[in-house]
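[Automated response] Your request has been received and processed.

Submitted sequence:
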Amino acid sequence: MVLLVIAVLYQVFGRYIMNDTPTWAETIAILLVLYVTMLGVAVGVHDAGHIGLESFLVLAPEWLRLKLEILIHALVLVFGVVMAWQCGILAESVMAYKLPTLGISEAFRYLPASLAGGLIALFSFEHIVALVRGTEVEPAWH
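Generated structure:
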């Protein structure tokens, strides 16, 4: 997050003070936004802060509620695995191409989504284990 702020500040400084916009600053800011956003999505799944179907579960009986919560987390787990796998394939397919302003592989654009998919799957598995054991997952922001 700090690197993102520095990149944007440097871009603004170059554009408005020096009248010479650094071409790499915008590209690196976009990359950093992708990393921050995707990791934030994974943390949202860990903390159960995502928009979920749990709001309807308060109406269900207890025996059904547990099964539906496990199903919901299993579906999110599958989504995370598919997201990680497909973004990994996409990153591999563009690995040979370079970002012109940074000189690094184009795969760096798709790596955060692949990492987030893996983390989503792991965090969903953690929720399933906690539900089966009858415990709570401790939020990252406590």
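Summary generated for your ticket: The mean pLDDT is 88. The radius of gyration is 20 Å.
If you did not submit this request, please reply to this message.
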